[in-house]
Specification:
heterodimer; A: 108 residues; mainly beta; 6-stranded mixed β-sheet; 57% strand; B: 112 residues; 7-stranded mixed β-sheet; 4-stranded antiparallel β-sheet; globular
């Protein structure tokens, strides 16, 4: 069974808008990671947040983690058409477990 | 793609035939993983390796076997391919436990 579940399953926005994706998980974790996958390509690691961290930034990405609610969010600010991709959260316990992803479409 | 290659990139095979997919890394990472990706299921772990000749099963290991005789190579074998094994297969590597994984470009396998 999948540990992480992303919400929404699909998101369509205009260039320049912010995109927020959420991830919920069920058991305790060591860290939580976000990955991006462009169509027909492998996954690319975006950011890792440890269980004792609450927020982390990387460029236009902002990730939050609430371990009491077992949830995380990924915010992409000032989105670009090139951000169009699927985004996956992955929880790291003994293994890395992926959710089913959010398909983000950024319209020019 | 972080020094990871997969071969072949595409393969069409018939039901009942054996198939071997290869993952090769140049990063000297200890951990290697095989996943399959299917619509509606996300990425699911098939097998993984934590060192040469050290492997373990993932959540969907039935019908698959693996071998790792060298640090750089991790082979995934479908003993007798079935249509349910039509999928995109990704290899990934990781340097240390609990750190990020780096993915290969994937192999699209079609079993007819």
């Amino acid at each position: 069974s999948q540990q992480g579940e992303e919400d929404p399953q699909a998101l369509s926005i205009q260039e320049g808008e912010n995109a927020t994706m959420n991830c919920s998980y069920k058991t305790s974790i060591n860290n939580l990671q976000w990955y991006r996958q462009n169509s027909g390509r492998g996954l690319v690691h975006l950011i890792l947040i440890r269980s004792n961290e609450r927020e982390k930034h990387s460029g236009r990405l902002r990730v939050t983690l609430d371990t009491s609610k077992k949830s995380s969010s990924l915010l992409i600010t000032a989105s670009r058409a090139a951000d169009t991709a699927s985004y996956f959260c992955a929880t790291s316990g003994s293994r890395l477990t992926f959710g089913e992803g959010t398909q983000l479409t950024v319209n020019p | 793609d972080a020094g990871i290659t997969q071969s072949p990139r595409h393969k069409v095979t018939e039901t009942g035939t054996p198939v071997t997919l290869r993952c090769h890394q140049t990063e000297n990472h200890r951990y290697m993983y095989w996943y399959r990706q299917d619509p509606g299921h996300g990425l699911r772990l098939i097998h993984y390796s934590y060192g040469v000749k050290d492997t373990d099963k993932g959540e969907v290991s039935d019908g698959y076997s693996v071998s790792r005789s060298k640090t750089e190579d991790f082979l995934l074998t479908l003993e007798s391919a079935t249509s349910s094994q039509t999928s995109v297969y990704f290899c990934a590597i990781r340097d240390r436990a609990f750190y990020e994984q780096y993915f290969g470009p994937g192999t699209r396998l079609t079993v007819t």
